[in-house]
Amino acid sequence: MINLVEVVNVLIGDIMPIGETTADGKAYINLEENMSNVAHECITKLIECAKLKDEVAYSISRSGRYSHSILQDLKEQIDDYFEEL
User: CA of 26: how far to CAs of 16, 38, 40, 82, in Å?
Assistant: First the structure.
């Protein structure tokens, strides 16, 4: 059974260059037009939800806390990437 991430990856298309001009051009367009838009939209939604982490209502704060933890994990991955440069 295919999961949501696999569906999104199919919809976005390949983003990794392989050293072949035509394929790399398509991969760049997928990166520029598809992946960047999806990534920015997802991160924006996570930020909005994370702002609710301190709400009194448990059902709201639970989603806010989980979104906050996802953002922390993403930040660590990004920080690790930049430290390796």
Answer: 10, 17, 20, 26
Q: Spell out a b/e string for 57-72, using b for 16 or more CB atoms within 10 Å of the CB, else e.
A: eeeeeeebbebbeeee
- pLDDT (tens digit per residue) in 11-53: 999 999 999 999 999 999 999 999 999 999 999 999 999 999 9
Give the predicted TM-score (pTM) of the model: 0.89
Domain boundaries, the chain: 4-84
What is the spatial distance between Cα 71 and Cα 52, in angstroms, rounded to a whole number?
13
Single out the residue of 43, 48, 55, 50 nearest to residue 67, CA to CA: 50
Q: How many helices (H) and strands (E) does the chain have?
A: 4, 0
